[in-house]
């Protein structure tokens, strides 16, 4: 029962977040790069939040955010791949688009094996990034719809179980 109630609360939180604009988190230690991408994202009618430090970003992001992440591969505090793994360990399962100024085939391969949505070399091409951000939004929308349907099934099961219990159906060992 507690699991079902928890799922219902989570569904409400997700739907409230969905009313908000889709958000793009930009994490890059290069402030000029952050500003440039931030401007692009807002031109595309999405909300943008930029972070030049991993700590600031980690204090802001949370599971269930209606968002995706544009993440630099190489930063002073922590490399982007390690941050991505940490996000997944914290159940922050948002689509991630990596950026790199230093293409390293093994790191790129590892990023894709970890589930990265895409990876671009800097300087990025505006149209390519826009397309991938739009795809990220579709992925998040589909994930929310799937969760909503699953939550609705749990809710209906809860109601049926309560009705069965109220009618005494379980009293006969059924």
Structure write-up:
With 174 residues, the protein is of the alpha/beta class. The protein has a domain at 21-140: Rossmann fold (3-Layer(aba) Sandwich), CATH 3.40.50.2300. Helix content is 57%, strand content 14%. It contains 6 helices and 5 strands, in the order αβαβαβαβαβα. The protein has helices at 2-19, 31-43, 54-60, 80-89, 105-114, 126-166, and strands at 23-27, 47-51, 67-72, 96-100, 118-121. Strands 2-1-3-4-5 form a 5-stranded parallel sheet, sandwiched between helices. Helix 1 (2-19) runs antiparallel to helix 6. The chain is elongated and about 65 Å long. The model has no long low-confidence stretch (mean pLDDT 82).
Which band does the percent of strand residues land in? 5-15%
Structural class: alpha/beta
- Rough outline: elongated
Number of strands: 5
Annotated CATH topology of the domain at 21-140: Rossmann fold
Helix proportion range: 55-70%
CATH class of the domain at 21-140: Alpha Beta
CATH architectural type of the domain at 21-140: 3-Layer(aba) Sandwich
Adjacency order of strands in the biggest sheet: 2-1-3-4-5
User: Uncertain spans, ≥5 residues at pLDDT below 50?
Assistant: none
Order of H and E elements: HEHEHEHEHEH
Biggest β-sheet strands, sense, barrel: 5 strands, parallel
Q: What is the count of DSSP helices, taking H or I runs of 4+ residues?
A: 6
- Under CATH, the homologous superfamily of the domain at 21-140 reads Response regulator
The radius of gyration over CA amounts to 20 Å
Between the first and last Cα atoms, what is the distance in angstroms? 19 Å
**What's the pLDDT, averaged over the residues?**
82
